[in-house]
Structures are given as structure tokens and as C-alpha cells.
Amino acid sequence: MLTGTSFCLTPCSAGSGCAAGTSCLTESDMAGNAAKVCVPQLECGIIPPSADAGPAVPVDAGAAATGTIGLDGGTASRLLFAAVGDTRGDLPLDSAYPTAVITQIYKTIEGFSPRPMFVVSTGDFAFELLTDTTTQLGYYLTARNQFTGPFFPVLGNHECFTTVSSNCGTGNANGNTPQYTAFLSTMLSTTGRTVPYYTFRVNASDGSWTSKFVIIAANAWTDAQGTWLDSVLSAPTTYTFVLRHEDVTATTAPGVPPSATIIANHPYTLLIVGHIHTYSHSGQQVLFGNGGAPLNAAVDYGFGLFNQRSDGTIQVDAIDYKTGLADSSFRFAVHPDGTPAP
Question: 159 near 125, Cβ under 8 Å?
């Protein structure tokens, strides 16, 4: 019995004896007794972690970033923040949740020198098909508490109704699903907000620059959100970071095409996304989806580090979750307007 639903499954032992496409896991039988059975894997293209992405190198991120950042933003001597994406397990079972990986990611962020001032996360925190979403969000928040700074989450499709095309919220096609309600009450509430699209600002302590972070909820999209997004992006800042769960290719997500049109009409520094379980960079889009979910490329788990250099450019690194080292083949930098920098 898998979380209240019964299935006929093949017994296995010691993690072996299962056909391709299934995993040997411990579940409860109809009598409530523990049993090892072959559980279907619901994800395709899972690739084991690899250290072959590029030579690992240390990051010289400069002096510590100082200032005061709270849930509504704040001031800082310079921008230094991390991005974590996609942490749901490879099976819709609490026992498959990647607790060890996401806990280590936040431990590494907390111990990084200099320490990032805050973390943004690009969604898909739970795999809820047969589980209580609140339980898996709780696993994530416990791991996130390894980091002592502020945390700003983005709504993913798995926090709505699994499919990329799902659209949650009052008046939308999927309405207020249990997953969506759990995200609002369990995770978004930690930011003091009730609506899954929001913004915060971080400005220079000496007044020399300004920045805004704009969080889009592409799976809770409404015309009102579009109007809000256009208005927020119209406000001038030196740096603008837009966060959305899905990348530009996920055109079936209700909020991706309309938000892409709005974003294109305004200056911005970077669009930070997840959804695909790897890390990559193309133009002004940077993707970090390697926060514990089954990997889709030969990279390892980790997070993105965004570092404002002394010349005002933003350097972006992909950091390994265990070593704290960067993938030298990935590193890039942009000017405040998003154009490439040396």
C-alpha cells in the first residue's frame, strides 16, 4: 500500500531483483507490515551524478558581503546570494526524498566563505503524487534551516498539480489544489507573504546601486499577475533579477509565454530558472535545477553563486554541494544590463 493506494508489486531483496524502470524500496503491505517491493520509477532520463562537467576550482568571491537583509530585502555592501533549484525526489514517496543532498547543500552555503547573504530557490520542492505535500515541504524547510539567512521560494509546477500546463489559484483551471495550498501555508508563509508572486529589493549600503528581485508564479498565472509584473519591471534599478520556475522552452506553462513577452520589454540582468535538473547558461537565462532532483545531465548536485565583483559585474558560478568548488567550464559574468562581461 503506497500512501493510501493499493498496488500489486513484485517483491525484491537488498535493493536488487527489480526490472529496469523500477527501484527496490521498503513500503507497507495491506496489513501494515514493512516489505521490500519493486516500485516503478516515474521519471525518465535519470543520469547519475558525475564530476566530469569541468575542472573544479575555488571561488575567490572577495570580501564578506555586509548589511542587513530581511524578508522585505534590505541593504548590502555588495550582492552575494545563492540559487537552489528542484529538490523533489525521483519517486512520489517520502522515503525517496533527497534529504541528505538538500541538507548538505544548505550546510555548504552556510559554511561558504564569504557566506551568501540570502538564498532564492526556483521551485519543485515536493513530488506529491502519492504523498502529503506538507510532509515533503517540511523536509525541505528543515534542511533549509541549515542556512541562517533569508530564503525566498518560487512556485514550481509540482507545487500546483504536477503537469507543466497546470494553473492553480482561485479562478484558474486547477483551483486551490492540496499541493498549492500546502505551498502557500507551509513554505510561502515563511516569507510573510500570501501571494506566490512578489518582489523585494536589495540596495547598496552607500547608495551606489539598486537591485530588485522579481518572483513569478508561472503555474498560478493571471492577468492581474501580468499587470503587476509589467509595473514592477518598469521601476528602474541598476540590477534586475527575474525568477521563474520554468525556462523559456516550457511554453505550455501558463505563465511562461506572457511573462517572457513582458520581460523582453524591460531591461534586466538575468532570468534565473529551474525545472530542468542540471545547470546551464544561455544568453540572459541561467538555470539551476540540480538541488536534489534526479539529474538530467552529467553534473553533480549543488547550487548557483551570484557574486557582484568590484567592477559592478555579476559573476555566476555552479558550486558543488560537497566540496564548495566551482565548475570552471561554467563560470560567466554579465554587466547590470545583462550583456556579457569578461
Answer: yes
Q: Does CATH number 2.40.10.10 belong to domain 43-341?
A: no
Is the pLDDT confidence value at 20 over 60? no
| Integer Cα distance of 222 and 234 in angstroms | 19
Q: Is the dihedral of CA 64, 122, 236, 189 positive or negative?
A: negative
Give CA–CA dist 267/70, Å, rounded: 25
Distances (CA, A) of 154 to 147, 188, 195, 245: 17, 8, 11, 6
Which of 311, 313, 296, 338 is CA-nearest to residue 53? 296
Query: For the chain, how many residues are written?
Result: 342
Instruction: Round the average pLDDT of the chain to a whole number and report it.
Output: 88
CB atoms inside a 10 Å sphere around CB 161:
20
CB neighbours of residue 113 within 10 Å: 8
The ranges assigned to domains in the chain are 1-40, 43-341
Confidence band, pLDDT 50/70/90 cuts, at residue 29 = very low
Task: Give the number of other Cβ atoms within 10 Å of residue 331's Cβ.
Answer: 16
DSSP secondary structure, 24-91, as one string:
EEEEE-TTS-EEEEEEEP---------STTS-EE-----SPP-EEEETTEEEESS-EEEEE-----SS
Alpha carbons 191 and 153: distance in angstroms, whole number:
8
Q: Which helix (H) or strand (E) holds 179?
A: helix 178-182
Q: Please give the model's pTM, rounded to 2 decimal places.
A: 0.85
- The string of pLDDT tens digits covering residues 80-133 is 999 999 999 988 888 899 999 999 999 999 999 999 999 999 999 998 765 679
Question: Would you state the pLDDT for residue 15?
Answer: 39
pLDDT for the residue 132:
79
Which residues, other chains included, contact 335 with Cβ-Cβ below 8 Å and sequence gap of 6+?
312, 313, 314, 341
Q: Which residues of 235-253 are buried (b: 16+ CB within 10 A; e: fewer)?
A: eebbbbbbbbbbbbebeeb
Whether residue 34 is predicted with pLDDT greater than 70 in this model: the reply is: no
Nearest to 196 by CA among 254, 166, 155: 155
Q: Would you give the distance in Å from CA 329 to the centre of its chain? A: 22
